[in-house]
Batch of 2 targets.
Target 1
Amino acid sequence: MGTIDSTLAENLRPGAVQPGSAALRELVAAMAAGAPARDRGEADARDAIARVRAARLGVFRVPGAEGGGGATLPQLYELVLDLAEADSNIPHILRNHFAFVEKALRARHLPPYRRWIEVVQAGELFGLGASELGTQNVGDGDGRTRLEPAGRAWRLTGTKYYSTGNLYFDHVIVNAKTPDGRLVGARVSVRQPGVDVRDDWDGIGQRQTASGTTVFTNVEVAPEDVLILADDVKIGHSATFAQLYLTTLIAGILRRIAKDAVALVTGRTRNYYHAVAARPADDPLLQQAVGELQSAAYVAEAAVLNAAATLGDAFDTALAGEPDNALFEEAAQRAAKAKVVIDRLALQSATQLFDVGGASAATQRAQLDRHWRNIRTIASHNPGLYKARALGNHAINGVPLPSAAFF
């Protein structure tokens, strides 16, 4: 039934990559080196995720005394920035795992999480089965996936969509409903019978994230791997972590756009006969455009790290057992404000990049279209206009921000 080896926690491997270390910089550089081939479809993300496993990046937020990287929450978002600059697919793949670890760290007093965090410490990766098609209210937690009793165990049946990264992971936490109407989270192994992870994602961007379909057909689930969600640890604005993570991906892509702009201008030797300067690097119009792109990347990075610092402070209160709801709301506001501006700024920048490169920038071999495609795909996870409206309603009328999924 996809059981977890109880000896995993006794066999922790040392050497988890540390924040700011040379090993971490080497890992990010390796992600960047393989990005062009992956984007062209000449390679997939499996090798990259193998490097992630070898570096034990999955325990980046686990305390150092427990074999983890000991990173703070802001340091995690700094890592996401670096990885997204290198190849935004890789940190996107890891989002559900990092979100799971964040929950498990503050809920390990509950038996399922205590069991699952040991598996994380042993180097395994967790995905998520949450989104379903056909539900009227997206993000309300309801769905058609069922967990039925079967003797001492349970049986899971249902279909989940947008299941980013499950193809590369070891375990999936699946949201389901029992016959008596209780909402649950059930852990299953990706490799056990009845689990079908399909690489059928056909998005215009984030092509290597395997954000496709996961089908569960009569999958056996152990009783100890079922969590009644009513008993789960709850915090206000629980979706802020994942939402800010997505905006941080976009900020990382903006960094790459700014660097690509410099490379395009310095790599050009010709200019138009009616340009301001013969040498592109001396052309004040191109200099201005590059300066605007550099500024956009800086503002985006500053905004997401500012929100991450507040979210880190909020999570620290939760880990201490006394969640500060005001801090969580402030973090949600900052994350939402960052998204509203950064999404638009990034899409504009991805287009402006072509203004500094000339016609050759539009070739397939340059692959510069990937920035716009990836930004547009990530930004579409939750339309910014709904966040802007909620922020405006809060500012004008004092209406609380949405506090559940997708905000």
Note: The longest helix spans residues 284-319.
Target 2
Amino acid sequence: MTTIRKDDLIDSVADALQYISYYHPLDFVQSMHEAYEKEQSPAAKDAIAQILINSRLCAEGHRPICQDTGIVTAFLKVGMNVQWDSDISVTDMVNEGVRRAYSHPDNVLRKSILADPAGARVNTKDNTPAVIHYEIVPGDKVEVQIAAKGGGSENKSKLVMLNPSDSIVDWVKKTVPTMGAGWCPPGMLGLGIGGTAEKAAVLAKEALMDPIDIHELRARGPSNRIEELRLELMEVVNNLGIGAQGLGGLTTVLDVKIKDYPTHAASLPICMIPNCAATRHAHFELDGNGPSLQKIPDLDAWPQLTFEVGSNTRRVNMNEVTAEDVQSWKTGETVLLSGKMLTGRDAAHKKLVEMIEAGEELPADLKGRFIYYVGPVDPVRDEVVGPAGPTTSTRMDKFTDTVLANTGLLGMIGKAERGPVAIESIKKHKAVYLMAVGGAAYLVSKAIIAAEVVAFPDMGMEAIYEFEVKDMPVTVAVDVNGESVHQTGPAIWQKKIAEQALEVK
């Protein structure tokens, strides 16, 4: 009989969550570097470079890879011969570990969890509770897999009940393009196949805890149908040409992970959950001999890359730019932004629209300005602001026309694509949409030289800030004519990949 002490689990959970906030798994770093080396799309290669540079900066500075430090999911396998030395439940121990991790003074993490999700949506202020899955197994140890999953990738999860005769490959091929780029590819796809609807979803999430090993599978060859399916789906998805950040390119996924379970004869449940470029998970085991702490990786494992400013890069001073100036900006063009911008995401946009409709004066003048869709991490030490990467822009689509029509806003900055409604509004009002790289939050924060809350301070990370930036890199994603790089880029690269395949044959 093994006795696990309360503080051993709490300390191990807290340590793991701090660790994964700033250290990518090394298998991910290596796979991303391989993708960088082979990428032929300049835009995608640049995006991957920013993700890798950001990863190394975070490993060195012990600050979050992404401003969205996630909702915590934990899988616990508890041995039947384990007893607990604790006055609280195992669930409470895990949540106390989360609480301590997200409030660590040297590396404060953003707290994104809201209670009363269908009502008031009030922040719990400590990122609890975690989502916890338990399995009671033979043995005298406790095995823990823990992850922090960002909302942008979690929101792209797909669940379907196929007919038994339907093709899983065809469904994935059809579905992945509908997910857009809000999940920040390149990442991994986790698939759960079988069981019931809820079992398939848990299997898909658990599959994402496994290391990237598709290259090993390719080398040795598949030994069962699931491994065959992994290889087939990997090829099919990358042939879509979606590429890094949805800009078009050779690598959309780094691996496809699958777990399956027996299912009813009339059913074929499938859940697909993507893991983003800030993939964060850790594993540890408790055996009664104290906490299990993560091992510090060797920084030499990270490639030494630099962000290169191309000859066609446009430098823009947002304090002086005019509506006439943006007429010449073209999709796919790299822009370095300097000057002052405002920030705002879901809650702020909802409040702004309510004020516009009520005829109230807005707390900030948006005319001729740019707004950045971001909810930053609180600063520590001498930081102006913590990691401040973009959030998924499509969530602001329903507010876009009202804001553009009533404020004279000139541009928006976020991640991933815009939907048809937003694109039509951008075209109508001759505005622009710029894309920052998701998964490069700490790198972006290095460009912010001043930050001040100017409205809605009670909203916390959803408040409206004014940032002053210097040389913040972005890509023109939708120009004043409504052309979207997220439509043109993947189409171009899907065609190129198909042509290359024909040449090989």
Note: The first helix runs from residue 6 to 22.
